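User: Run a structure prediction on this.
Assistant: Running it now.
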Amino acid sequence: MNKIEHLGIAVQQLETAITTYETMLQTNCYKRELVDAEGVETAFFKIGESKIELLASVAESSAVHAFLQKRGEGLHHVAFAVDDICAEMRRLQDEGFVLLSNEPKRGADNKLICFVHPKSANGVLIELCQDIG
């Protein structure tokens, strides 16, 4: 794992949260994206070398919807940049971590992604991210 790629924050109302974070961070949202496969709409902010991703559910079947119903708004996941997501997935599985998928899938911000189950990571949902060339 190379670095923290972004922090994912689950929000109820994306528009309201964008305004809040633009005011707080004193920067504009640089990208919004609908990720149909995950049932979310995202908004990204860049602060120095770090990124914040706001996630709002657009489908009741989405994991973010379930998270919001159970826990409310807040930190949803920590994402780490990796060079080779398949190799990192194999390494983590070999170390006993439970992954939420057997293959990487396409995520927001032109990334291949895979999640590590929070029960394997002290209650934190971990996302692996690899840039798609």
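The CA atoms of residues 9 and 75 lie 4 Å apart.
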